[in-house]
Amino acid sequence: MAKMTLEQLRKLREEKRQELSRREVEGKEIQLIVGMGTCGIAAGAKQTFDAIVDAVKEFGLGEEIVIRQTGCMGLCYVEPTVEVVAPGMPAVIYGKMTSDTARDLVRKHLVEHKLLDSHIYDRPAVDIIKK
Amino acid sequence: MCDFILDIVQNAVEAGAGRVSLDLVEDDAALRVTVEDDGRGMSPEERRRALDPFYTDGTKHRGRKVGLGIPFLVQAVEQAGGRWSIDSEKGKGSRVSFVFPKGNVDCPPLGDVPGLFVSALCFPGSHEMAIRRRRTKTAGAAALDYELGRGEIAEAVGGFERGSSLALLREYLESQETD
Whose CA, among A77, B69, B96, B115, lies 20 to 30 Å from A107? Predict the structure, then answer.
């Protein structure tokens, strides 16, 4: 371990704060939920999750979005799956979301407010969609 | 040994000090520690009684009937063939110094230095604390030389109240102790 300077300590604190902020739910209306069942992980959901975190950071959306993980959504044949819930947009489950397409998802759905048509596979269960 | 040091630092903080300093200097032969504060200090009579384990002023910790910090330290230092001194002036502050010869079989192990500094910095209050850590190159370890200021550390980690801040502080202090 190299000796840390006070400046590095401040930077580390800021990084940790941002990391914690990603998990905070309060005051955030947009949710990105990554399917992390065995099927998802086997198909690369961890890499997808990381790519989403990077993309959210890149587009400066960290304060508005909560990124969570869940289990299998029942769409094992199109893993990795990502559910997106955002106000003013239909709740959608995207499939085949590899780490390469994750950035496109964040850009198109959350920045341009358009659906990423080629990856839509389902909508979330009706009981969790707000009417 | 860190436990002894922490007790003395706690005494300094609880003496209402605005400024506390802790020097921890180590070489092949000895470990030298000095804790100095500008708190309320002790009269010659109080200083004498501070060596009595069954004496406490009864105000800092209500219901406690013993004051073991200084007596235990003195016992350990004398058992290890070291030296100690307490200089104090009422209303001006106190200075506690001690030296442990590392070659003596009764010299206690140094212990967890980053843990000591975390605990010392986290005593509540608005006082400033300066910690100086020196170690000349010894047979088993490289030289160390760094200083910590309570105010700037608190600013960097965002205060000492949250567990996440303390984890960061610990990480920082452990990095300072690396060769």
Answer: A77
